[in-house]
Design goal:
By secondary structure, the chain is an all-alpha fold. 58% of the residues lie in helices and 0% in strands. The radius of gyration is 28 Å and the shape is elongated. The N and C termini lie far apart (73 Å).
């Protein structure tokens, strides 16, 4: 199986809210850390370029290694914590909201009907402005 296809299938399963193994959850955490590390290192590389200065590649490498190592450690922690996570398909106890379409003037199901407040005729002209 092509690794790119496997990664795409993993990302689609994650987006669909399907159950993932602890290893898959940790891999996604690691992938997110790599993307963030690359963005930070990319900013460190492009900043001197924008200021017409020489790029210090050692500094860029050091800037990349710190978030890379941090993301690696976070993914290891995620692997061990993912064994205790609730399955994604369970919904984690949050009910899905129901969308109800009603016509103007109709009561909304499940909610108390608002009652109009009568305004005496003598106060109507003052209330309208």
């Amino acid at each position: 199986m092509n690794p790119i296809i496997g990664l795409i299938n993993l990302l689609e399963a994650s987006r669909a809210g399907q159950d993932l193994t602890p290893l898959a959850r940790a891999f996604l955490k690691l992938l997110l850390g790599f993307v963030i590390s690359a963005a930070i290192a990319g900013w460190e590389a492009i900043q001197p370029f924008l200021n017409n200065q020489a790029i210090d590649w050692a500094n860029v490498l050091h800037t990349f290694v710190a978030p890379f190592a941090t993301s690696l450690l976070f993914s290891v922690v995620k692997y061990f914590k993912a064994h205790q996570d609730a399955p994604l398909s369970s919904g984690a106890g949050t009910p899905k909201p129901q969308i109800v379409f009603v016509q103007p003037g109709e009561p909304v199901p499940g909610s108390p009907m608002a009652q109009p407040v009568p305004i005496p005729f003598s106060q109507r002209s003052a209330a309208n402005g």
